[in-house]
Structures are given as C-alpha cells and as structure tokens.
Design a protein that fits this description.
six-stranded mixed β-sheet; 5% strand
Length: 621
C-alpha cells in the first residue's frame, strides 16, 4: 500500500470509528449487546410514540425517527453507551418552533418536522467541518438547568389535555394550558383520567420496585388490554386508531426558502442543545467506564444521523438520558446494541402496528408525564444556589423566560445572560491586596488570611483575571486610589502578575498611565511573576522603558521585595530591612501549613544584587 493509500485508509478509519473496535468483536460482547439492545428497543416503542405526541406529529413518526440514527451512529460514534433517539426536550423545541407555522399533526406540519431534521443535520455537519464544537460551551450549566426545568413543566402541563380528554389546544405556554384545564374542568372524562393515572402509578411502582423491568411497555400493554376489553373508544376515550404498517419510504424533504427562514432559529437552537446533550452524556459514560470519546466526531455522528433521518420521515434526534442509562445498566459493550434496538423497532413496524389500535392517548400521556417528571432537577438548583448565587440567578432567569416568553427566547436570553455575567466578572474582577505570610516566601490576600502581614511602605496587589479593555480602568482606578489613600506610607507598588494570562492594548495604556501617575508621586511600580506571552506584549509596547532605568520586572514577588528592600538599605546607613525580612521568613517554622506553602528550599540569603542569578527579567527574556 503506497503512502497516499495509507493516508486515505487512515482518514477512513478516523471517520468510520466502527473499524477501531469491530475486529475485536466476539460472542461474549454480542451476548451483552443483544440483551442491552432488546431492552432499549422494547423501551423505545412506547416512549418514542409518546415523544411524537409532544412534538405534535402522529405517534408512528416517533418510531420512524429512531431507526436510521440507531443504525448510523455505530458507524461513526465514539461512545459505547449512547443511545441516539428522540428525547423530550427536543420535542418541546420542535413543537414551539413549528406549531406557530402549521397546525400540529397536519400534513404540512409533519413535512416541516422532517425538513427540520434535515436542516439540523446540515448545520451540525457544517459545525463538524469547521471544528465549531466549542460553540456548545456557550450553553452553560445554569442555562441548561433552567431550560430543562422549564421544559419539564411545559411537557407535564402539555399532556393534561390528553390525560383528562379535554380540549386545551396546543400551546407552549404552560399557564395558558393550565387556565384552559380549569376552564374546562367540567368536561373531564373520568375514565380517561383513571386510565392515565393508573398508567402513571404502574410505571412509578415498577420503576421503584424493579428499575430494569420495562415498566413503560408493561403500562402500555395494560392500557391496550383494558381499552380493548371494555371497548373504551365507545365510552369516549381517545385511542391511537389505525396506524400504517411497514417501514418509512425514502424521499427528499420538500422545502421552500420561506420554510428555511421560518425554521432557521429552531434549527440553530436544536443543533446546539443536541450537541451539548450528546457530548455531556458521552463524556459521563466514558468517564464511568474508562474510555475516551471524540467530541468533534460525535458532532459528525449526530449530524449525519439527523441529515439521513430527514430522508426517512424522521424527526430530529439526540442522545437519550434514559435509554443510555439502560444500556449501561444492561452492560452494553459496543454500539452494536443500537443496531439491535433498531431491529426491534423494525420488527414492530412490520408486524405489530395493528396491536396499537386500542392504545389510549391517556396511556401515552402518562408515559410523557413520567418522562417530564424525570427532568425535574431541584438538586441542581440547590447546588447552584449554594455554590454560586449568580449562576442560580441565570438558571432562574432562563426558567422564567422559557416559561413565560418562549422556548427559543429562553435559550437565547439565557446564553446572553451567561455572557453578560462573564463580562461583568471580567469588568469587576477580584483584586487582592497582598501581605506577607510569616515563615514563608508567599504573599496572600489580607482579607482572607488573618496571619498575613502588610509590607511596610510597599503596596502589593494581584488581579485575578486577564488584564484587558474590560477591566483596565477598574484596575487602574483601584491601584491609584489605594496609592492615594496610602501616599504617606508607601514608596513602591508591586503587581503580582502570576494570574494575568493576557494583556491587550487598552490594558497597556492603562498600565502606562499608572506608571506615569505613580512616578509623579515618587512611587515606583514593580511587576512580578508575569507569564512569557504577557512579557512579549510588554516588550513590543516598550513598557520596559516606561518603567525606568532600574530593574522593575521580577520572576516572583519575593524577588521584587528583596530588590526593593536592598535598594532602600543601600540608600540609608544602618538600614536592616533585608535582614528583618529574612528574620520574618524564618519565623514560625513549626507551622506545617506555612512550611508547605513556602515552596522549594532556597539559600536563606542569596546574593540578591547579582544579576547572574536571573531573579528578574530584562528585555532579552
């Protein structure tokens, strides 16, 4: 094989990840995958039909949507445990994006849902080609927590009409649905309510008693049996009715430019939310089971699955929380379990669809309500509130916007709120005034370390952020104000630059202004611990010259302090500042926490004025 052929084969293997594990496949793995695939397939039959109801399409389209992704993902995906199927959150976004364009369950509506899968797939493939997987980082955890909580409320309230067999219309605003339920309370079909409530009870009790048992399927079977035996359609209970047998036909999704414009924002929102879900789930199971996933390759696998789904009357799909958990619990070894799950659905479509004629809509509503309840995550809100109240505020903001304004608006404004939070933090970062920690060469925040001691005639500060246009004026004002307040007591200012990872031109101008203002007050500025890239920017900007002829840039704050004290000793007869400082370092030697903080051992009194010791930086460094 020549070099070009080897390169081509390498590229093929990178794209078709199945080649990395298929050659090691054996009977033992097949047994585990078969058990796992059967469990997922059986669970998917009622679940996907219920999720189709959330999206606003006939239940059969939920089954159609699962086939292609389950067959395609094993070819390209890198997770052994990820189940690519319909999920409740995606269905809520689909319903919110398309129900304002077409009537749910109409032919036009179904066409738009199929087209949406096609468009989402294209977006994700473009993101893969451009290596834009990092965009998912803008969906911060608080945004996801808030959106998921709102989605759970929308999902549950959206099924109250089917559960009680009353007309509440189709709305993505939960409060409108609740108002209509109370307005039509007298129209409740109590038989439907009993069927739905009974199904919820069956699923809940079985999940509590035996989590691996297919509770949803069992509840659906009971619902069908009761509906058939008591002829519930004659008693006013809505049932699925006749659904077509056979597999979906292949066809190119029909579209117009108007359709593309109308679906654009929904497709973008779905593309990001789906990728976030897939990567989060994939990394979770990879970490638990000691293997690696490739985030960008997952984006390709997801994109190609959605793209091809658009040709087979499918809906947008993503990584399923519940089905992935089942795969892990049933010891799935490879993505072959997805193929077996697809086989179960194919057999159902070919042979079993007549059995669903008597399936009551209240039973499907029960499946959806249980799924929505599973998305409620009060623990995450508590964690955010306890850990960082700003993140809790963003999650709460996203929750309220999603509930009362709209789903896409909730995601978008949640992202904007997260970015504004970052900008605020960058604009007003923590600035610490540092003091010397006795017994060490370390300098700590005076407000957080009660045993840290201020340096006599020296102000040392640390900016806990990149030094940029966002905080340049804030940091400048902080240093100048502190210098003014302590003008009679300080002669030098040291900036501990160890936490500064970047320096832009606005920050450079602010730094030059600080130097000039301090020099006018006969206060010298020193900078310590700055990183190489920051030093490079300072050199190119000529900042070394602005600092003056004396050495002003040091490797550590400790060295800067030694240099300053030595200069002051040289200028004043019988001054012992350096000796006093070293006496302070040697103080409290029995405090282990201080000794540990001191770092590597050094000679107690190095020759601090010998430039060969390289304790400071010059323009050649």
């Amino acid at each position: 094989m020549d070099v070009q052929s080897k390169k081509l084969w390498t590229n093929v293997k990178e794209l078709f990840t199945i080649t990395s594990w298929l050659e090691d496949y054996n009977l033992n793995k097949l047994q585990h995958d078969s058990r796992s695939g059967l469990s997922v397939g059986i669970m998917l039959i009622p679940q996907s039909m219920g999720y189709a109801v959330i999206a606003g399409v006939p239940p059969i389209y939920g089954l159609y949507a699962c086939i292609i992704p389950l067959l395609v993902y094993p070819l390209f995906g890198t997770s052994r445990h990820l189940a690519i199927t319909t999920i409740a959150i995606d269905m809520v976004i689909i319903s919110a994006g398309i129900s304002n364009i077409a009537k749910p369950e109409s032919e036009e509506y179904v066409i738009l849902v199929t087209l949406l899968a096609f468009i989402v797939g294209i977006f994700q493939l473009i993101m893969f080609s451009a290596k834009l997987g990092y965009l998912v980082n803008y969906l911060s955890r608080p945004v996801i927590v808030g959106f998921t909580m709102a989605a759970s409320i929308i999902i549950i309230t959206g099924q109250l009409g089917n559960l009680m067999d009353i007309d509440v219309g189709k709305s993505t605003y939960f409060y409108e649905t609740v108002v209509k339920v109370f307005s039509n309370f007298q129209d409740i079909n109590y038989i439907s309510l009993a069927i739905g409530a009974g199904s919820i009870a069956i699923i809940g009790l079985i999940n509590y008693w035996k989590p691996l048992f297919p509770s949803i399927l069992f509840a659906i079977i009971i619902g069908i049996a009761v509906s058939w035996y008591f002829n519930l359609p004659q008693k006013g209970v809505d049932v699925i009715g006749k659904i077509p047998s056979g597999l979906p036909s292949i066809s190119l999704p029909s579209f117009s430019m108007d359709n593309l414009r109308e679906l654009l924002s929904t497709a973008i929102a779905l593309s990001l939310v789906q990728f976030m879900t897939v990567v989060t789930l994939g990394k979770t199971y990879a970490l638990r089971n000691d293997y690696e996933i490739d985030s960008n390759q997952e984006l390709f696998a997801l994109g190609i699955s959605n793209f091809l789904n658009g040709f087979f009357s499918g809906m947008p799909i993503s990584g399923s929380f519940s089905n992935s958990a089942v795969k892990e619990q049933t010891k799935s070894k490879t993505p072959i379990s997805n193929i077996i799950a697809a086989g179960v659905i194919i057999l159902c479509l070919i042979f079993l669809t007549p059995l669903f004629y008597y399936l009551p809509y209240p039973s499907l509503a029960a499946v959806v309500i249980v799924a929505g309840y599973g998305l409620i995550d009060i623990r995450s809100f508590r964690f955010l509130f306890k850990t960082k109240k700003r993140d809790c505020a963003i999650a709460s903001f996203t929750l309220l916007i999603t509930l009362f304004i709209g789903i896409k608006e909730g995601i978008l404004l949640g992202i904007i709120a997260s970015l504004l939070g970052i900008l605020y933090h960058q604009s007003y970062p923590n600035v610490a005034e540092l003091g010397h920690l006795p017994g060490t060469r370390s300098f700590k925040d005076l407000d957080r370390f009660s045993n840290a001691e201020p340096l006599e005639k020296i102000l040392m500060v640390r900016l806990d952020a990149s030094f940029s246009f966002a905080n340049a004026e804030f940091f400048k004002d902080y240093i100048l104000k502190k210098s003014k307040d302590k003008m009679d007591t300080i002669k030098a200012v040291i900036i501990d630059g160890s936490t500064i990872s970047d320096l832009d031109t606005t920050a450079l101008n602010a730094l030059k202004s600080i130097i000039q203002t301090l020099q006018e007050k006969n206060i010298e500025l020193y900078i310590a611990g700055i990183k190489g890239p920051v030093r490079d920017v300072m050199k190119r900007a000529g900042l070394y010259k602005n600092l003056g002829p004396q050495q002003h840039i040091f490797r550590t704050p400790h060295r800067a302090v030694l240099h300053i004290l030595k200069r002051w000793d040289d200028q004043q007869t019988n001054s012992t500042r350096v000796d006093d400082y070293y006496d302070d370092i040697e103080r409290d030697p029995d405090k282990e926490e201080l000794k540990a903080d001191a770092g590597p051992e050094e000679p107690i009194k190095p020759d601090i004025i010998n430039e060969d010791n390289e304790h400071f930086f010059n323009e050649d460094d």
